[in-house]
Amino acid sequence: MFSRLPKPTIFAHRGASAYAPENTLAAFELAVHQEADAIELDAKLSSDDQVVVIHDQTLERTTNGTGYVRDMPLAALLELDAGSHFDAAYENENIPTLSQVFETVGRKIFINIELTNYSSPNDSLPEKVADLVNYHGLARNVLFSSFHPKVLKRIHQLLPTVPIGFLICPGLSRVLVRTRFSRPLKDYQAIHIALQDTSQELIKMIHSLVIVLMYILSIGKRI
Question: Which residue from 24, 39, 110, 126 has the least number of CB within 10 angstroms?
Fold first, then answer.
């Protein structure tokens, strides 16, 4: 999958969220129009186990609703206004379902799906998301990411061909700690370091290490 993406790859975080309300169909469609290489979105479950796309665990910051997302059924969530907080022009923009996102842009752009069930890591989010990816035939168009290694391990067991990225909290000291905790994953393809911990020097060092590792592996194969 990574070989099919340009380098560097431009991910529209929560869609084109500087120009449209985050995690809405408007933001995702605008990202496609602006020719981003990929989008990132946040998936979690409603109270009736439907996969919805919203970042926060609560509704107040990005909608006209109140309370926790996990405490509301899909029908109630779809009635909320998720656009007016950004601009009156986006009044009545809805919280989308993951299925709606797939139907709208799933074959137009690559999608990084962050599994955000941090307050309920044992829920059925990985299974629900995997079912939707299979139903829409998008296993080659998605990447899964999460701060929670067990959630990533579960989704990887369900869809082993889909790459996974392990998210790291800010602070370089946490990279080593989190990487140690991620050992049960074994097969993650990317470590997503916080922006403030990233530098050109660090990226160059990692690229150099990858080149050396690939060279060593190639020698091993010839032997």
Answer: 110
With a CB cutoff of 8 Å and minimum separation 6, the contacts of 121 are: 148, 150, 151
Over residues 199-211, the pLDDT tens digits come to 888 778 877 877 8
The number of helix segments (H) and strand segments (E) in the chain equals 7, 7
What tokens were used for 93? 């923009």
Catalytic residue set: 13, 55
Rounded to 10 degrees, what is the CA torsion of 107, 17, 10, 104?
0
Rounded to whole angstroms, how far apart are CA atoms 221 and 1?
A: 23
Question: Per residue in 19-29, pLDDT tens?
Answer: 999 999 999 99
Residue 210 CA to residue 189 CA, distance in Å, equals: 12
Give residue for tokens 């080659």: 140
pTM of structure: 0.86
